Amino acid sequence: MFALFLQAYSAFGEGASDIATRIDNLVLKYMDCCQFTGTVLVSDHNNVIFKKGYGLANREWNVPNAPDVKFRIGSVTKQFTSMLIMQQVAKGAIKLDGRVSDYLPYYRKDTGTKVTITNLLNHTSGIPSYTSNPKFFTDVSRNHYEPDDFIKKYCSGDLEFEPGSKFRYNNSGYFILGAILARVTGKTYEAVLQESILVPLGMKDTGYDHWSTVLPKRATGYSQELTEVVNSDYLDMSLPFAAGSLYSTVEDLYKWDQALYTDKLLPADLKQEIFTPGLENYGFGWDIKTIPKGEPGAGQTLISHEGGINGFNTLEDRLVGDHDLIVIFNNTPGMNLEDMSKGIRAILYGQEPSAPKRILSHDLAETIVNRGVDATIARYRELKRTNSADYTFDENALSPLGYALLQKNRISDALAIFQFNVEEYPKSANAYDSLAEAYAKGGQRQKAIENYRKSLELDPKNQNATDRLKELDRH
Fold first, then answer.
1. Burial class (CB in 10 A: 0-12, 13-18, 19+), 63
2. Mean pLDDT value across residues 281-301
3. Domain spans of the chain, in order of start
4. I need a surface site. Which of 95, 202, 207, 278 has the fewest CB within 10 A?
């Protein structure tokens, strides 16, 4: 693995070089334990004190990651979409209490007259999210769609709850917002983004990602499949659309961060609405919370968002009280970026970061490939007894291993892992949900139903279990 392009800006204050060194040492540990490959940028009181690339942007050509390498940012896209919507609100072209049917005449009237723009922005619409469709990634994700056609087919389902009554994270809502922007402006979402945000801010390394475009310094996305890293599955970028189709660099997100402290893009009163938390502490395209006691920066407002898309995961943390920024891009997903960001935050506040935990599923993969399920379970128990401090042993630790086995159609092995996880965590709704999914893929319908019902019993809010039970009841 390679670690390249460290830049520490000691001119920004005494100790900045030492802070940069400590951040670098922490991220190097994540490379070693968790296969992190990506880029990191940290600013302190508006000044960049650290930016560096780790590992490879392209493994086939040994191209190193660097701060100017372009990554798909997934749902970090949503904050740009919310800004574009609010700019149209400022112009009077869109109203926050306007209904979907006001802007998209073709949308079904029985639901489109109930859902407001605000509901779309803060994930309270009740419209089913198309990425929750169990057949989306297998049957749909490689196909190209025009926005209106996709909305009619995949973003117009029956409401799951009364709009405004609940929070449920929803890619359909932001896809619809992109179509509304196009309808109101008479331009494509991409053109509005360029004209209204990217050009004014000089964000030349950010844009709508098209697979066919020859894009200099574009990172390749990878996935972990048991013991090997592979190129991630193809995804037609017309489908994430305004919910997740942008690429950017950590350097460009710093420009974006700095602009958000000004009124250059939007009047202050409307910008405040973006950053006002609603249900589940979600604003318009942002998670907003107060850092709890016991964590670095306790009492500060943390405005953030994660992104995940085939082969990439990203995190942007803004500590707005001190004008600090932590941006992490990863092109070999698997580790928890929040843990790394929390460690960097500790360094910024003069504390010692927690040592990163190894990824249990990664370290068990070789055992299951070479020695089978029984040896893997024995190894799990041994590690839990002798190395518990080095790993996170919780209800989610074995899930990646089980799903990797499912992807390889090793159904019986996946079932054994998920069954063991249920034994370890009999009160976990997620454990039963995963076991049910494995039964469903293996054609054992009744056992899938039984375990989805058990998951719902433990967590009545588990919408995935509710949706899967409806589907199983139809067949």
1. middle
2. 96
3. 74-348, 360-474
4. 202
Check residue 10 and give its pLDDT.
32
Question: Please, which residues have CB within 8 angstroms of residue 276's CB and are 6 or more apart in sequence?
Answer: 283, 288
Q: Which residues pair with 4 in a beta bridge?
A: 53
CA 33 to chain centre: 21
Whole-number mean pLDDT of the chain? 94
Reported as a pLDDT band with limits 50, 70 and 90, residue 6 is very low
Task: Give the list of residues 6+ apart from residue 317 with CB closer than 8 angstroms, or none.
Answer: 302, 304, 325, 326, 327, 341, 345
DSSP conformation letters of 318-333: EETTTTEEEEEEESS-
Domains 74-348 and 360-474 share a fold: no
pLDDT in the model for residue 475: 67
- CA torsion 406-407-409-413 (nearest 10°) is -30
Got the DSSP string for 209-258?
Answer: --TTS--TTBPPPEEEETTEEEEPPP--TTTTHHHH-EEE-HHHHHHHHH
Q: Which tokens sit at 181?
A: 């922007």
> 252: which 2 tokens?
């460009």
Q: Within a 13 Å sphere around the CA of 250, how many CA atoms are in the beta-carbon half? A: 31
What's the pLDDT at 16? Answer: 79
Give the number of C-alpha atoms closer than 13 A to the C-alpha of residue 199, restricted to the C-beta side.
7
Q: Is 311 helix (H, G, I), strand (E, B) or coil?
A: coil
The domain over range 360-474 is classified in CATH as 1.25.40.10: yes
Q: pLDDT tens digits, residue range 181-220?
A: 999 999 999 999 999 999 999 999 999 999 999 999 999 9
Rg (CA), the chain: 23
Topology classification of domain 74-348: Beta-lactamase (3.40.710)
Distance (Å, rounded) from C-alpha 334 to C-alpha 397?
11
CB atoms within 10 A of CB 310: 18
The whole model's pTM is what? 0.93
Please count the other Cβ atoms lying within 10 Å of the Cβ belonging to residue 221. 20
Residue 101, amino acid: S
CB 75 within 8 A of CB 315: no
How many angstroms separate the CA atoms of 66 and 54, rounded? 7
